[in-house]
Write a structure and sequence with these properties.
The chain is α/β, with parallel strands linked by helices. The protein contains 13 helices and 15 strands. The strands form 3 sheets. Strands 4, 5, 7, 8, 9, 10, 11, 12, 13 and 14 form a 10-stranded mixed beta sheet that branches. Strands 1-2-3 form a 3-stranded antiparallel beta sheet. The protein has a two-stranded parallel ribbon with strand order 6-15. α6 packs parallel to α7. The structure holds D-mannonic acid and magnesium ion (MG). The site of magnesium ion has 4 residues, from loops.
């Protein structure tokens, strides 16, 4: 079965998605997600100019060889754009292989290790009361794990919270990056109060998560981890930027709050020290950024040796094809931990017909062959690309900060 053609579809049914469609001479096609939030068009060019021409005529069943060819053959290894492009090709080829075999991806991986995939929802509010209400509402909808974010007194809005956190857009409402103000000291005092309130109001059973969005230094992260210990978080995410992997040794020595890192990573090399030294508990790499099923499966297996579990990135910029792959991997992986799922707009659900389902706080990838996701290209054409960027932080004195 040869690759006959491939095309990239960019659409914005609520937010931008970059989708690769690979078509074979056997009439089967597969889809992959290559969305890189705020850098979508760079991946489109990479795929169209440098990847698709090399794919035509190749045997679609040789997924590993094509992965190695694109990874090694580029000479410029790794990096978010290269790896997103490889991810999309890999996802589409696994989709095709599943369709050819008449099996859902999780069966090709070795079958299910569990009946369903636990997911966590997002909740937020400008005040502790608002955030607590949102957490309670999500719990009411059946979620057993919820990420809680709160505004900080004295700061107008922070990422993911407040007016600018337009849920439908995944926080992306600006045609140029909006510059926000950040104060670590104000944040550190306030956040533990939110979790004290949540435990008090909602009891001990609910899994509570928090994302620090790479904004703290290691010693500040250690302080936050310690202060949150009484509230037994499921995880504290991205406490400090992870370019300096050694920084996590300092955090780890100080706190038993579990740590989750890796949504911005794209290969095992980015996480090797973190995993080998057991400096984290959950690895957040995701199928559209870490080399598709092939790349992510390798990271998952490597992490298992060190008792690190998965917690794949699943914000709204992780497109449905990648979400489906994460769910298949989650159903299979012996060291699955949790999957993020912040939901999609109705328009996104319609543009990407899918077999995956959600029941309260759990999801299932479905039994359709392959990934179980397709793209309705005619509908997609109604939602053209929209310029949109993530916000940027400055400290109160105007200096650029970590994230
Ligand atoms: C966040 C994301 O979901 C998360 O954990 O960190 O909102 C992230 O900032 C965006 O997906 C970036 O594209
Ligand atoms: Mg995050």
């Amino acid at each position: 079965m040869k690759i006959k053609s491939a095309k990239v579809v960019v659409c914005s049914p609520g937010r931008n998605f970059v989708t690769l469609k690979i078509i074979t001479d056997a009439g089967l096609h597969g889809v992959g997600d290559a969305t890189v939030n705020g850098r979508e068009k760079a991946v489109v060019a990479y795929l169209e100019d440098h990847v698709i021409p090399t794919l035509i005529g190749r045997d679609a069943s040789e997924i590993e060889d094509i992965w190695q060819y694109l990874y090694r053959g580029a000479y410029w290894r790794r990096g978010p754009i290269t790896m997103a492009a490889i991810s999309a090709v890999d996802l589409a080829l696994w989709d095709i292989k599943g369709k050819a075999a008449g099996m859902p991806l999780y069966q090709l991986l070795g079958g299910a290790s569990r009946k369903k995939v636990m997911v966590y929802a997002h909740a937020q509010g400008m005040t502790i009361e608002e955030a607590a209400e949102d957490v309670a509402a999500k719990k009411e909808r059946g979620f057993v794990a919820i990420r809680a974010q709160v505004g900080v007194p004295g700061l107008p809005a922070i990422y993911g919270v407040g007016e600018r956190a337009n849920q439908a857009k995944g926080g992306m409402v600006n045609a140029l990056p909006h510059e926000e103000t950040w104060s670590t000291s104000k944040y550190l005092v306030h956040v533990p109060k939110l979790f004290a309130k949540l435990r008090d109001a909602l009891g001990d059973e609910l899994h509570l998560l928090h994302d620090a969005h790479h904004r703290l230094t290691p010693i500040e992260a250690a302080r936050l981890g310690k202060d949150l210990e009484p509230f037994r978080l499921f995880w504290l995410e991205d406490p400090t930027p992870a370019e300096l992997q050694e920084g996590f040794r300092l955090i780890r020595r100080q706190t038993t709050t579990p740590l989750a890192v890796g949504e911005v990573f794209n290969t095992i090399w980015d996480a090797r020290l973190l995993i080998e030294e057991q400096l984290i508990d959950y690895i957040r790499t995701t199928s559209s950024h870490a080399g598709g099923v092939t790349g992510l499966r390798r990271i998952v297996d490597f992490a298992a040796i060190y008792q690190v579990r998965t917690g794949c990135h699943g914000a709204m910029d992780i497109g449905p094809a990648a979400m489906a792959a994460n769910l298949h991997l989650g159903l299979w992986a012996p060291n699955f931990g949790i999957q993020e799922y912040s939901g999609y707009t109705e328009e996104t659900h319609a543009v990407f017909p899918h077999a995956f389902t959600q029941t309260g706080g759990y999801m299932h990838p479905g039994e359709a062959p392959g990934l179980g996701v397709d793209i309705d290209e005619r509908l997609a054409a109604k939602y053209p690309y929209e310029r949109a960027y993530l916000p940027i932080n400055r400290l109160e004195d105007g200096a650029m900060w970590n994230w």
